[in-house]
Amino acid sequence: MKLESRMAYLEAVVTRYLQAAKALKTRILDELCKVCAYNRKYVIWKLNRWSESKEVKVRRVRRRGRRYEGEVFRVMEKVWKAAGYPWSVRLKEILRLWRPWIRTRYRLTPGQEENLLRMSPSTIDRYLRPRKDKTKRRLYGRTKPGTLLRHQIPVKCDHWDVKQPGFLELDLVSHSGECSSGDFIYTLNLTDIASAWVENRAVMGKGEQRVQEALQTLSQALPFKILGIDSDNGSEFINWHLKSYCDKEEIQFTRSRPYKKDDNAHIEQKNWTHVRKLIGWSRYDSQPALHSMNALYENELRLWMNLFQPSVKRQRVVRKGSRRTRIYDKPQTPLDRLLSFDLPDKRKLLDLKTLRDQLDPFELSERINQKLKQIWTYAHHRWKPSETARKTTDELKELSASERKTMEALSQIFGVRLYVRTRKGGGIVRVDHG
User: With 0-12 CB in 10 A as exposed, 13-18 as middle and 19+ as buried, what is 324?
Assistant: First the structure.
C-alpha cells in the first residue's frame, strides 16, 4: 500500500477510533496493523498525534487564590524600608523579631498578623521584585601596602573555622570622593567571625597611631575579648604601633594575601552593608563630619545593626555536578548569636538584651535617617585640590628619593603633615601622610 493510501485510510479511521469504546479500539488497531503493516505502538501514537494536529485544545490554567490582602503587603513593605531593605530570608526573621513594635505601630488584626508571619520568602520576593533598587556603584580603594613588618606577621588565607567570638577581620573604608589628595575621613570597620557583630569608628586620615587608638577604643566597646585580628596589607595595619599593641594584649595578628579580597570576605561584605550603603561615596574631610559620623557609629547604628538586624551564615556547600548550592543557618541577630555561646562574662550581653526590649527599632531607624541627612550636608561632591596643593606636589620632586621616603614614613607614623625646607632660602614643602 502506498503512503498516500495509508494516510487516507488513517484519516478515515481516526474519528471512529477516538469515539469508540475500548473493545472496538482494539479491533480497529488490529485491522490497521494488518492492512498497513504498522507496529501497534506506532499506530496508537500516530492516531493520537493526528487528533492533536487537527484540533487545538484549550488548556485551562488553574490560578491560586490570593491568600494575603493588600494591608499585609503594605505593612511588610514599610518594615522592609525601615529595616534597610534586607533580602527576603532576613526580612522574614525581622518580621518575627519586630512583632511587638509592628503590633503597636500598625494595629493589625490577629488574622493579618498571622498572615504577615506566615508569608514565605518566595512570596516576599515576588511582591518586592519591582520595588527593589538595582543601582550598582563601584568602590575604589585608597590604601597603600605596608612593607616593614610583612615577614613578621603570618599570612592567613584559609577559611575561618572558629567556635567562639573574639576573632575579627578589620578594614578601612575611604571617604575621599573623587580625589584622594589631602586629609579626609576613613571608617575603621571590624566584624567578629563567629557572631557577625560589627563596630565602626571614623578617623581623620589613616595614620598608624590614630588607627591603633581607634582599635583600642572599639575593643572597649565590644561585649567580648579580642582574641585575634586579620587585616589586609595596608600600611595603616602593618606597622609597629599595631604590632606592639597586639603583642601587649596577647592578640593573634594575621594578614591576608596581597590583592586577594576573598581572604577577607566577611569584612568586605560589611564594608558595603554598614558603611558604603549608608554614607555613600562622597568626600568627607571636616571635623563636623568626623564628629557626626562617630555620633552615629557609637550610638544608633551599632544598636540597630547588632540588636535588630538578623543575618545568616553559610554552613556548607553542596555540589551536584557543576552546580553548587549554599546551605545557610537560621537568621539570627549578632546579639542572639553571642548569647548562644558559653562566655565567662555575659553581663554586657544581658544589659544589651534588656536594652533591646526597651528600644523601638522604627524610632532607631528614623533617628539614623536624620543623622545621615546631617552627615550628607558635610559632603564635598566635587572637591578639587587647590593651587597650593598642586604646587606642593610639584615641589616634592626637589627632594631626593631617600628624603621623600623618610618624610613620608615619619608622617605616616605620627599621622601629621610635615613641612620641610628643601634648601637654604628655598620654599617649604608639605609632606602628607598616606
Answer: exposed
Q: Is the dihedral of CA 161, 166, 167, 172 positive or negative?
A: positive
The pLDDT tens digits for 105-149 are 888 888 888 888 988 999 888 888 887 755 333 333 444 444 444
User: Model confidence at 307, in pLDDT bands (50, 70, 90)?
Assistant: very high
Predicted TM-score (pTM) of this structure: 0.66
Per-residue pLDDT tens over the stretch 13-55: 888 888 888 888 888 888 888 888 888 888 888 888 776 655 5
113 phi, psi to nearest 5 deg: -65, -40
C-alpha–C-alpha distance, residues 36 and 239, integer Å: 92
d(CA 304, CA 271): 16
For every residue of the chain, which 3-state class applies, written as one string? CCHHHHHHHHHHHHHHHHHCCHHHHHHHHHHHHHHHCCCHHHHHHHHHHHHHHHCCCCCCCCCCCCCCCHHHHHHHHHHHHHCCCCCHHHHHHHHHHCHHHHHHHHCCCHHHHHHHHHCCHHHHHHHHHHHCCCCCCCCCCCCCECCCCHHHCCECCCCCCCCCCCEEEEEEEECECCCCCCCCEEEEEEEECCCCCEEEEEEECCCHHHHHHHHHHHHHHCCCCCCEEEECCECCCCCHHHHHHHHHHCCEEEECCCCCHHHHHHHHHHHHHHHHHHHCCCECCCHHHHHHHHHHHHHHHHHHHHHHCCECCEEEEEEECCEEEEEECCCECHHHHHHCCCCCCCHHHHHHHHHHHHCCHHHHHHHHHHHHHHHHCCCECCCCCCHHHHHHHHHHHHCCHHHHHHHHHHHHHHCCCEEEECCCCCCEEEECCC
Residue 105 neighbours by CB distance under 10 Å: 17
